[in-house]
From TrEMBL, chain A:
Protein name per UniProt: ZYRO0C14124p
Family stated for the protein in its record: Belongs to the eukaryotic/archaeal RNase P protein component 3 family.
Assigned GO CC terms: nucleolar ribonuclease P complex
InterPro entries: Pol/histidinol_Pase-like, RNase_P_p30
Top-level taxon in the UniProt lineage: Eukaryota
Automatic annotation (TrEMBL), chain B:
Keyword annotations: Hydrolase, Nucleus, tRNA processing
UniProt-annotated location(s): Nucleus
Its biological purpose: Component of ribonuclease P, a protein complex that generates mature tRNA molecules by cleaving their 5'-ends. Also a component of RNase MRP, which cleaves pre-rRNA sequences.
Natural source organism: Zygosaccharomyces rouxii
EC number: 3.1.26.5
Residues of the signal peptide: none
GO biological process, one term: nuclear-transcribed mRNA catabolic process, RNase MRP-dependent
Protein family: Belongs to the eukaryotic/archaeal RNase P protein component 2 family.
Gene Ontology cellular component list: nucleolar ribonuclease P complex; ribonuclease MRP complex
Top-tier EC class: hydrolase
Name of the protein: Ribonuclease P/MRP protein subunit POP5
GO molecular function: ribonuclease MRP activity; ribonuclease P activity; ribonuclease P RNA binding
Chemical reaction(s) catalysed: Endonucleolytic cleavage of RNA, removing 5'-extranucleotides from tRNA precursor
């Protein structure tokens, strides 16, 4: 299975109107990803943390808009929200949001935002603007402790396909992220706004590999680790205390509840492992 | 004396953007077949082995400078390209495979033709295996289009492992 956790949703805020042409464009991106071999895709809705959240924050209506595409191609589509964290004091509680989205991510743009997102925000993913300077110098201690907490770091490679300046910044930022996380818990995603920004595993992996991440971790970052983020996010809504859920495959849509066989999903910790996240969840029959 | 080690890269040219006539023809088909056929189109005559080699060199130059071009350009050669199927094979030095893969990944045009994806599919040490893989892949693709099967393309990632077992 191949996972892309970041396909841009065209709306920029909750109030933005959405037209059909933009939805068609998203469909084109999804179909290109399907041709490139992706099986699980998350649509990414980016908003400011200080915006007022409406009562139903999820505007995607994935079933209505993309149901036909999902059925004919076998692609699985999930929703993700990314909060741009500027001033932590103005932010609101994200507990309400996380019920409506499969994945919650944070994108800090100030130093205080970084410290909030790394310390105590209940998120699945930490991401940055890869075409701009990082908000602050990333320290081993803060990033590694977030990764230990179960939050993954995201590398978005669409910045590498744009103009020269953002390419340079991309290289700089990726090296910083890889260094500060000691290449643990990194997830690679496209961040595609147009179908031309999609790449397959071979291209993306060779790109990140040359920036200092080991080859096997590059491949993991697009499959196992990324699906772990999906699992984590979906367990938040579909399970009891993130540990027990009913159904055969929680990551799959619609599988909850309509299957007779029960599966226990356990959190496990293997202390000998370098990365505790990998042994954490095992599916047992 | 050590033998000169090379790698062969199988790539394909994908056309993800809709043209009006493609849209018209795909409307009559099932969604999945429409998507597949829209991406795998016949390449225009401006694209040839020569223009692809030029494009890879240009991309190497812009992304990796004189050093990268000099390093990877030494053995670089487009061994095969077919406009009909939009697939081709590039030869490069074993140590510079990543540079060439990145050069393919970081470009969106060939000569004057733009809005396309150069999609590297497989890397192998012998050209024979690449050819065999390309044939198998296109057979599976044809079967997928004919049967209008939904999960054929997902299995492409597994092709190597399965097929190599059979070869042994």
């Amino acid at each position: 299975m191949l996972v892309d956790l970041n396909v841009c949703w065209p709306q920029k805020s909750f109030q933005d109107p959405l037209n059909d042409a933009e939805v068609d464009r998203v469909k084109e991106v999804l179909s290109t990803l399907h041709v490139l071999g992706y099986t699980h895709v998350a649509l990414n809705f980016t908003v400011n943390h200080s915006d007022k959240f409406p009562s139903n924050p999820n505007p995607m209506q994935i079933k209505e808009r993309f149901g036909e595409l999902m059925k004919s191609t076998g692609l699985k589509i999930y929703s993700r929200i990314t909060l741009v964290i500027d001033d932590p004091s103005k932010g609101q509680s994200i507990a309400k949001l996380s019920q409506h989205f499969d994945i919650v991510a944070a994108l800090p743009i100030t130093e205080r935002g970084v410290s909030l997102a790394t310390a105590n925000l209940d998120i699945d993913l930490l991401t940055f603007h890869y075409n701009q300077r990082l908000p602050c110098f990333l320290k081993h201690k803060t990033i590694c402790s977030t990764v230990k907490r179960g939050v993954k770091l995201e590398i978005v490679y669409s910045a590498a396909l744009k103009d020269l300046q953002s390419k340079r910044q991309f290289v700089n930022n990726v090296r910083n992220v890889v260094r500060s996380s000691r290449s643990r818990g990194i997830v690679i995603s496209s961040g595609a706004q147009s179908p031309l920004e999609c790449r397959n595993v071979l291209g993306a992996a060779s790109l990140i590999k040359s920036l200092g991440l080991q080859n096997d971790k590059c491949l993991q970052a697009m499959s196992q680790l990324a699906s772990l983020v999906l699992l984590n996010g979906r367990l938040r809504n579909n399970s009891y205390k993130q540990t027990v859920a009913i159904g055969t495959n929680v990551v799959e849509e619609n599988s909850l509840g309509n299957n007779n066989s029960c599966v226990k999903i356990k959190r496990r910790r293997r202390p000998s492992e370098e990365d505790p996240e990998e042994g954490k969840k095992k599916v047992h029959k | 004396m050590v033998r000169l080690k090379t790698r062969y890269i199988l790539f394909e040219v994908l056309y993800p953007c809709d043209t009006p006539q493609a849209k018209q023809s795909s409307e009559s088909r099932a969604i999945n077949t429409g998507i597949l056929l829209r991406h795998h189109r016949v390449s225009p005559s401006q694209i040839s082995a020569k223009t692809i080699a030029q494009e890879v060199r240009r991309s190497l130059q812009t992304n990796f400078g004189d050093y990268g071009l000099g390093k990877a350009g030494s053995l670089l050669q487009v061994k095969y390209f077919s406009n009909r199927t939009s697939t081709g094979i590039i030869r490069c030095h074993r140590e510079d495979t990543d540079l060439v893969l990145m050069a393919l990944c970081l470009t969106n045009r060939i000569g004057e033709v733009d809005s396309l994806i150069l999609n590297a599919v497989k890397v192998s040490g012998t050209i024979k295996k690449v050819e065999q893989y390309a044939i198998r892949r296109s057979q599976r693709f044809l079967a997928a289009v004919q049967r209008n099967d939904k999960d054929i393309l997902d299995d492409f990632t597994n092709v190597t492992a399965n097929e190599e077992d059979q070869d042994d």
